[in-house]
């Protein structure tokens, strides 16, 4: 299927079915790619974006997983913070950019926060519902085995919630990539998101496509590594 | 004195002075002896520049359009003019759909896409007015230029308000320019500074302006070299770079005429509900900008 | 002295009107085996879950010595699907050294006849094997109090007799306090010092079994006792 | 907690701790709200946005749920389409706007597509993993009961996957709201996202806040209704 | 004529080397009850799952008449947690009219003694009650072939005897083809026309029980047969 799409793209360009100013030919995208690789800027962009996407993602995971766990466990915490969390979940991060600039300035922190806001909720909500749906029978077992909190998480709750947690982590990872364009609207001078919006401003559609394809390719590589890792760590979770 | 100056780097639409100033590290050199660091931050959006100034993250913007500057001031965020940069009359244009050459009159009843409250919008209004029409005679669709460009290429609109490279690209795709800002409005790009910085560090500001003016001079003296630099940075061909530079009309000292166009800009913004509070435009221009 | 004592305990499940236990009192003697029999749905599992502290009585108090270690065999095997048989069985002795764990777990798996399935996941076990793994998990730490809810129910006659015999031996040396829920009257009489017939909300009858260990199911005394218990059960 | 935040906001404004240009006072937000209500534009914005958010969301759900189901069932389908789907999942929708305009024009379709792209993946991936993790024992039961495909979905697979599906639907709903700002960057003349970006461009921070708060409030109301509905339809899924 | 026939069937679980059945043949006679006994883990459940078509043999063929309706009682109750007892039991007759469903389900719930728990969810049932509900679900449509994997294992002696008796009656009128896995030798002899002793990979022994129905566990002939079966089992 990807091959078919690629062929279609080639044909569409070759026979000028579509406007080449909006959908550049594979050839011109390739030469834009080579050009960007040669002058080294592509690596700068990739480097900057990788840092932001992973940084924001890791931060999101670090907040979201414990929150999901504790909120599932102590429903009152969940109820308490529901309004604030749900608001944050619904509010478009793009609209928060001015406030983020106010509080966090125009440096990396604001960009990381945009990524964090984008990827936090799938991780959090999936963890929450994963921990919430745990089979109570294993909870009883934990009690008779005298497991302490940490042991209970390790032996019972985490493995039990893992399928849901894993889905959340995968989703969050995707959203952290997606958020790059928004994040790099804030005073960025490098990064794939910046490349895309800058090139788009200058009608360099070929460069836009290089940016899009890089994001897609890196994202897929990341997702694949991710799935490998989980298969290693928790073979039971992926039948 | 501060130990660093945060200054916005704005390369679009083809701001050659800014490009050269950064590449030559002129400011870095100027302030090296004082131990002051220059932080270039890339922010293209005028609105975001003003927000960053309000938040204290930005001191100076090398290039800001006057509409953003006026709107910020109208909302109580004091941003002042430090010096002139460009009067890019041909950099802003109304471009028609590929195919026929449209005249301003032909726009009647047509779909026109572009960004509201900007010079481009102003150009459209002025152009229509020059033929006895008003903005209500066209179907105006709010979009930023890169999206308007896409809509024009996809033939989903009849005309688009475009700037700089987008005009060149659309012309190459067969779309014909209907009218430019030339003779209709006097678009102004200026160097802007937050009121706080202007007050507290007027000496530093003067030196920044001085470097900027030296750069403008250097560009006219080493035109080909400057064009090559700009072409590379903006990712356009030498020809296009030359075209864009010619369209831009770089300058430095703010004239009475410029003050007048600031006034008419404000009138336009007020008229279109884009500004709530009228401000005294003369007071927005610092004395150094005029010498 | 009692290992566990229930005093005037009443319990019903939240959202349900019917009392499972009503003003229920019971002393469970230290180091003895108490067998509980009774009709399906009469409240045996509920009682054992109350003793284990998994349920809280609506009224009355249940006291166990806090120093006592608890082992439990649930009515379902309740093995963790993400752990192998070995890992499941080693869970109660997770804080011991690896060598010790290996030795003990292998010993107890040998006992229940699961030596060859150490590395199996629970989904790869037969019903009876899963039940034996659950039993092994409860025995691995030789708990002070062992609560067992039909631990041999899914076993064939031969395996069952074998494991009963082994259990009798262990009990003779370890002297745990055991509560055993069973449907097999013979089993109750063979293993228990006291047999309790549970009915709705209360104890219907109790019978002490005063026979020396080891007992054989074919022993006439055992058969006699079993007939008595069956009688109690039928008449209740 | 929400109350505390509100009080903090009031205090911050009253004592000018922060720049009112970036964080307007509650009073000025309130008067902007009244102003927008009076001239009736707020209702237009809300109406337009509700239509887009729900339209895109429903479309996303209509595609994502069956896809999640079939891909979980027929792994080869999943493998086949993985590259394309994962690419779409990683690519920032903002960067696709020019292409969407090219193909779908500047009407509602392009906006709905942005919303769809934003909310599709949580629904799809959660449904996929929900259906994938179904207890095989119930599948065996279905076979011995001779359930046909539809009956199997109805009695076994859907209820079994419901907790995961529900989390996906909730997440997707949030993202459909969030996408409004991006969606309404495409030639919109009304809608809360338009209100926010327009007001932000014009430095009308008070109106920006009205827009943000409306999105948050409507989103929370939607989420609450949603949870009520699920509690009605499938009481077993929320213990 | 055979209701089910297995010819030279071999089976092993994917990823495992050991054969569960090896070149295994068996004819299951129409309208008769076949009891299967054997040690825990010997492959009884695997065999019944092969017959039900839940597993595919690696070699050999299994034929059942396609027109035959199948009923199955799994070794675990396997009730759907999101359905009440009534809804679970009504599932096999889901396409009948509501009135019919109500009537029949109530009848069969009455039979297994669960009338009062129609609206309970499975999580609110005791172990034995869940098993009875599963039995009710299999009986509700009077299937042509009924496969039962230890259907009475979690029941107390009294309830078990009662249900055995009822089942015997039903079988006398409905004449289903039944495969019954059980650990109770008495139960096998009481209900079955033929008793099969299964060992690793093969049939160890078979025994026809030629006694008239209804049979009583206290009947001397039954006791005699049971002793024989136990002998076979012990010696195998
Ligand atoms: N899913 C599986 N994967 C691998 N091995 C399995 C699986 N299920 C069962 N086995 C193995 O197959 C053998 C037979 O299992 P089966 O469930 O048929 O036994 P059984 O005779 O029903 O025993 P029981 O009386 O204990 O229920 C066992 O050794 C078991 O470990
Ligand atoms: N979670 C629950 N919620 C409501 N009622 C319950 C719950 N668990 C059990 N019951 C009810 O409590 C009663 C006793 O159940 P319990 O499990 O104690 O029976 P039991 O004696 O162990 O039966 P069995 O021999 O069948 O396992 C039953 O009527 C059952 O319906
Ligand atoms: Mg029980
Ligand atoms: Mg079995």
TrEMBL record, chains A, D:
PROSITE patterns from the UniProt entry: ABC_TM1
Pfam families: BPD_transp_1
Domain ABC transmembrane type-1: 46-226
Topology of the protein relative to the lipid bilayer: Multi-pass membrane protein
Gene3D superfamilies: MetI-like (1.10.3720.10)
Subcellular location: Cell membrane
Main location: membrane
Keywords noted in UniProt: Cell membrane, Membrane, Transmembrane, Transmembrane helix, Transport
Residues spanning the membrane: 54-72, 177-196, 208-226
Superkingdom per UniProt: Bacteria
Family: Belongs to the binding-protein-dependent transport system permease family.
Protein name: ABC transporter permease
UniProtKB/TrEMBL annotation, chains C, E:
Pfam families in UniProt: ABC_tran
Family assignment from sequence similarity: Belongs to the ABC transporter superfamily.
Keywords linked to the UniProt accession: ATP-binding, Cell membrane, Membrane, Nucleotide-binding, Transport
Protein name: ABC transporter ATP-binding protein
GO molecular function, one term: ATP binding
Source taxon at top rank: Bacteria
The UniProt record lists the keyword Methyltransferase: no
Keyword set includes Kinase: no
Annotated Gene3D superfamilies: P-loop containing nucleotide triphosphate hydrolases
PANTHER family in the cross-refs: ALIPHATIC SULFONATES IMPORT ATP-BINDING PROTEIN SSUB (PTHR42788:SF13), TAURINE IMPORT ATP-BINDING PROTEIN-RELATED (PTHR42788)
Organism (species): Parasutterella secunda
InterPro entries: AAA+_ATPase (IPR003593), ABC_transporter-like_ATP-bd (IPR003439), ABC_transporter-like_CS (IPR017871), ABC_transporter_ATP-bind (IPR050166), P-loop_NTPase (IPR027417)
Signal peptide boundaries: none
Occurrences of domain ABC transporter (ranges): 4-225
SMART domains: AAA
